[in-house]
Amino acid sequence: MEEHNNDLDTFSRQWKKLVENNELDKCEQFCVESINRVSDRIRTIEGYTNKSENNRGALEALRTLRGGFRYMYGILLHNYLERYDEAVRQYDQCVQECPSNANAHCSWGSLCRDVFQLIEKKEFFLKINDNENAEYHFRKAIELQPKDAICHDNYGLFLFKQLNNYDEALRMLNKAVELKPQMSQAHSHLAEIYHEHFKDFQRAHEHFKKAIEYDKHNPDKYLDYGIVQYFF
Description:
With 232 residues, the chain is an all-alpha fold. Helix content is 81%, strand content 0%.
């Protein structure tokens, strides 16, 4: 198991290096080759006639490793290549092999949220729009990682923007800043829901100020703050 953890760490470092250098085609090739290499090892062990405990353990470890590779490939497809249908497949395969991979559950839900906000991707959104499934993945991610502020923030934004479940969205976003008080993004989302839905301009003002305090170099935060100042 430790060997496979080292393999995943090595993979993650190379993946990050390729992305940072904007070598996205090379990164995709690296992901596909890594997944195929582990798949070959899995098929080899599955072909053994001796189904020993060691072999079963090796298969489980290799499937977990492949799930980690699939998750990172899904991130590449989702966040960088914008090939959302393929990203969904990778996330799905990852959570099938690694049901406890909270990051994959959270990313699956976030993909639905992200595509919902991209008007130009409406045709794809109509194809994958499955709020019930997305909500399941968000809840599963939080169940697995109850102290993950990013999961709470992503789920809160999904509830706010896509399901119009404002009270539950507010609870999730408040939990995000409770877990990570300096999370500028969560403060921005709280300010937005207070401003747009609850019309509580005092609280919107407070959270926009915190969003700027924790992310001083983001011009969008100042623009949002200027808008709410008009109402304050």
